[in-house]
């Protein structure tokens, strides 16, 4: 729709201020094509104003609600997880943990140092921080991290189900 058509519709609806209203009236009086368009728009406006709006029957809402009540409510999809899969995954992780523990135990020398009752606290970090202690520390951190991740994911899925 071009601007003159929009201005004509606004003029018919009475949405223009005085300056624009006078300029549109001048255009209608001076240009026969715009005057013809204006008269067609007036006919359309008169036709539209004479139309009666159809209203639904009084029981329309009741009938729609009854039809909706007949439709069964959607059931949430509940899939059954095969317990063999869960046990298989759990077994894999248990075997992996046991393999890591046995590897660490195999590569660790279980010799006890001679205990001297010398009360001087001389800490040699080279003796305390060995590759074995680092491996044990990382393994314990991994287990704690997996337990935390399990707790977090279970909490998240419980919130989604609510």
Q: Describe it for me?
A:
With 162 residues, this protein is mainly α. The protein folds into two domains: 3-51, no CATH class; 83-112 and 127-161. It contains seven helices and no strands. Helix 1 packs across helix 3. The radius of gyration is 43 Å and the shape is elongated.
End-to-end Cα distance, whole Å, is 52 Å
Roughly how much helix do the residues carry, as a percent range?
A: over 70%
Quick check: average pLDDT?
84
Overall number of domains = 2
| Sheet of most strands | none
Residue windows where pLDDT falls under 50 for at least 5 positions: none
Number of strands: 0
Q: What shape does the CA trace take?
A: elongated
Beta-strand portion reads: under 5%
Compute the CA-based radius of gyration: 43 Å
Structural class computed from helices and strand pairing: mainly alpha
Number of helices: 7
Order of helices and strands: HHHHHHH
Strand and helix map with partners:
Elements: H1 3-13, H2 18-30, H3 32-50, H4 60-70, H5 83-107, H6 125-128, H7 131-161
Helix pairs in contact: 1-3, 2-3
């Amino acid at each position: 729709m071009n601007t003159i058509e929009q201005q004509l519709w606004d003029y018919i609806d009475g949405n223009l201020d005085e300056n624009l209203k006078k300029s549109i009236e001048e255009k209608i009086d001076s240009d026969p094509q715009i005057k013809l368009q204006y008269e067609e728009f007036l006919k359309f406006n008169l036709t539209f104003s004479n139309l009666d709006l159809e209203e639904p029957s009084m029981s329309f809402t009741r009938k729609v609600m009854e039809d909706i009540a007949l439709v069964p409510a959607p059931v949430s999809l509940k899939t059954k997880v095969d317990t063999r899969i869960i046990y298989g995954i759990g077994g894999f992780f248990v075997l992996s943990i046991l393999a890591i523990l046995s590897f660490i135990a195999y590569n660790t020398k279980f010799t006890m140092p001679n205990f001297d009752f010398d009360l001087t606290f001389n800490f040699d970090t080279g003796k305390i921080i060995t590759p074995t202690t680092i491996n044990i520390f990382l393994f314990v951190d991994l287990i704690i991290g997996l337990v935390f991740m399990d707790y977090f994911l279970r909490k998240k899925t419980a919130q989604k189900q609510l």
